[in-house]
Write a structure and sequence with these properties.
Number of helices of chain A: 3
CATH topology of chain B: Transcription Regulator spoIIAA
Strand content of chain A: 25-35%
Radius of gyration of chain A: 17 Å
Largest interface: A-B, 30 and 25 residues
Oligomer: heterodimer
Shape of chain B: globular
CATH architecture of chain A: 2-Layer Sandwich
CATH superfamily of chain B: STAS domain
Mean pLDDT of chain A: 91
Number of domains of chain A: 1
GO molecular function, one term (chain B): anti-sigma factor antagonist activity
CATH class of chain A: Alpha Beta
Number of strands of chain B: 7
InterPro entries (chain B): Anti-sigma_ant, STAS_dom, STAS_dom_sf
Mean pLDDT of chain B: 93
Helix content of chain B: 25-40%
Order of helices and strands of chain B: EEEHEEHEHE
Protein name (chain B): Anti-sigma factor antagonist
Largest sheet of chain B: 5 strands, mixed
Structural class of chain B: alpha/beta
CATH topology of chain A: Heat Shock Protein 90
Family (chain B): Belongs to the anti-sigma-factor antagonist family.
Radius of gyration of chain B: 13 Å
Distance between the termini of chain B: 30 Å
Number of strands of chain A: 5
Strand content of chain B: 25-35%
Pfam families (chain B): STAS
Helix content of chain A: 25-40%
Structural class of chain A: alpha+beta
Low-confidence stretches of chain B: none
Number of helices of chain B: 3
CATH class of chain B: Alpha Beta
């Protein structure tokens, strides 16, 4: 009798997932609109405009963090984006080869105080508000950020 | 980023002729706003009808545009599109600005 060996890393319960888009482009803020455009084009027709809006804002903030912090002043900075359609919604995985997040964790984002008239510091707050789930992992020299958007 | 200015008796309307105010364009937007508001007084209405997208850098640039006003000047916003409206609402920046449905409504754009 032959024994079937299943791979340890099999994605269980995720068999319905379909990769809508996978790309890798320079991690530069001038490239962010191009990445957002490609993601939006891939979702057009199958994802409603409200969800596409959530994805655009969240992904813009996450990509800008990579361009402005992880890969700032690196000679060769790149970011890979994979968009998966799942039974429960969308999963977007971003990979970059830049510096890790401080303390290897997502910063705690406090709700902005509008009276402060702050000119920044809204990025992680917006990500936390708009994504259903956010997961950060450092693997060897990679940052991996997974954003989940439930329908 | 192109900004065009229309002066009406009630306000100075600044139209943003771009679809995005974002990380690559925020600094230029802020500098253009600085030179536009370097003289004059009264209400400046930023017409965002053509702006489909804003990120936190763009939001910061709009806030900076208000902070760099001279005494006697105020900045109001008009025609927020869905994503722009969402960013302002989530960050509660909508509570800081007077927001009009369109820049040209009576009493705002000088038609009233």
């Amino acid at each position: 009798m032959r024994r079937r060996i299943s791979p340890v890393s099999a994605d269980r319960g995720d068999t319905a997932a379909v990769v809508a888009l996978a790309l890798c482009l320079p991690a530069l803020d001038v490239v962010t609109p191009e990445i957002l455009n490609r993601v939006d084009n891939a979702l057009q027709g199958s994802v409603d405009p409200a969800m596409r809006g959530r994805v655009q804002i969240t992904l813009a903030e996450a990509l800008n963090n990579v361009a402005e912090h992880a890969c700032r002043n690196l000679r060769l900075g790149a970011v890979a984006v994979a968009v998966k359609r799942c039974a429960w919604g969308l999963e977007i995985r971003m990979t970059d080869w830049g510096r890790p997040l401080p303390d290897l964790s997502i910063p705690i984002a406090h709700a902005p105080d509008p009276g402060q008239l702050a000119e920044g510091g809204y990025g992680w707050f917006l990500i936390g508000q708009l994504a259903s789930g956010v997961c950060y992992r450092r693997y060897a020299d990679q940052n991996r950020l997974t954003l989940r958007f439930e329908d | 980023m192109e900004l065009t200015v229309e002066t009406t008796p009630a306000a100075t309307i600044v139209r943003v002729n771009a679809s995005r105010i974002d990380a690559p364009t925020a600094l230029q937007f802020k500098e253009n706003m600085r030179s536009l508001t370097s003289r004059g007084s009264g209400v400046f209405i930023l017409d965002l009808e053509q702006v489909d997208f804003i990120d936190s850098s763009g939001l910061g640039a709009v806030v900076a545009s208000m902070k760099q006003l001279l005494p006697g000047q105020t900045l109001e916003l008009a025609a927020l599109q869905p994503i722009v409206e969402k960013v302002f609402r989530l960050t509660r920046m909508e509570t800081i600005f007077t927001i009009h449905e369109t820049a040209d409504q009576p009493g705002v754009g000088g038609q009233g």
